[in-house]
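Good morning,

Attaching, inline, the backbone tokens for the sequence recovery test we're adding to the shared suite. The designed sequence is right after.
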């Protein structure tokens, strides 16, 4: 498990091998949830499923793309981060923490 940040800005990424493929589970904030699913196959167009009005695909996409390119395998990234009454500062901190996690993949 990879973790970045503290308090409500803390995000964690779990990685699970499924055969040769990889499942990434991202969660964080005050109420983790499933807000999006991103599927990245090497050499193919990215697939995104957004649940409701959630925008979690914004941080899941780079994680899936980085892992797929690095390991040359299919990657499914799922998860969500929720903070009540989120501010621009909160969003920037979450994105920064997700980028730190991405650098550790």
């Amino acid at each position: 498990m990879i973790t970045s940040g503290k308090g409500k800005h803390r995000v964690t990424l779990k990685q699970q091998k499924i055969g040769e493929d990889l499942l990434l589970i991202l969660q964080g904030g005050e109420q983790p949830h499933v807000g999006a699913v991103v599927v990245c196959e090497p050499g193919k167009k990215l697939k995104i499923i957004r649940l409701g009005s959630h925008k979690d695909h914004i941080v899941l996409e780079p994680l899936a793309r980085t892992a797929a390119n690095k390991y040359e395998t299919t990657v499914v990234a799922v998860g969500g981060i929720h903070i009540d009454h989120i501010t621009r500062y909160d969003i920037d901190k979450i994105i920064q923490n997700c980028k730190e996690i991405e650098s550790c993949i």
